[in-house]
C-alpha cells in the first residue's frame, strides 16, 4: 500500500483560494514572527519545529503552508507519516494573493 515515500499531495496557492472555506484547516508552519507579519485568515500557527506534536482530527484534510513551500513540504511529510490527509501549498505565502491577516 505505502512505498518508502509518503508522497503528500500538493496544490498551488491559487487552488487553495478556490478550495478554501470556513471549515478548511490550514496550518502555517513558519516561525511565530513570520506568521504575525501576515498569514491567511483562519490559519493556525504550528511552527515546523513543533509539527511533530500536532494533534488534530485525522478525518479532516489539513493544508500546510510556509513562506516558500520548503518547510511545509517537510511538515506535510511528517503529518502524512502520522496518518493525516495532508496537502502542501506549493510556493507558500510568496504565491498567496488572497486576504492576509496581520502584518503592516
UniProtKB/TrEMBL annotation:
SUPFAM superfamilies associated with the record: Rhodanese/Cell cycle control phosphatase
Gene3D superfamilies: Rhodanese-like domain
SMART domains given in the database record: RHOD
Pfam families linked: Rhodanese (PF00581)
Superkingdom per UniProt: Bacteria
Domain Rhodanese: 20-102
Listed GO MF terms: thiosulfate-cyanide sulfurtransferase activity
InterPro entries named among the record's database cross-references: GlpE_sulfurtransferase (IPR050229), Rhodanese-like_dom (IPR001763), Rhodanese-like_dom_sf (IPR036873), Thiosulphate_STrfase_CS (IPR001307)
Keywords: Transferase
Keyword Transmembrane attributed: no
Protein name as annotated: Rhodanese-related sulfurtransferase
Organism: Alkalibacterium thalassium
Amino acid at each position: 500500500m505505502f512505498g518508502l515515500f509518503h508522497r503528500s499531495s500538493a496544490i498551488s496557492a491559487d487552488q487553495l483560494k478556490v478550495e478554501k472555506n470556513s471549515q478548511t484547516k490550514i496550518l502555517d508552519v513558519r516561525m511565530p514572527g513570520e506568521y504575525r507579519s501576515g498569514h491567511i485568515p483562519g490559519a493556525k500557527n504550528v511552527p515546523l519545529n513543533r509539527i511533530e506534536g500536532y494533534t488534530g482530527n485525522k478525518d479532516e484534510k489539513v493544508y500546510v503552508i510556509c513562506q516558500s513551500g520548503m518547510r511545509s513540504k517537510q511538515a506535510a511529510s511528517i503529518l502524512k507519516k502520522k496518518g493525516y490527509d495532508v496537502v502542501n501549498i506549493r510556493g507558500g505565502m510568496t504565491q498567496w494573493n488572497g486576504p492576509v491577516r496581520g502584518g503592516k
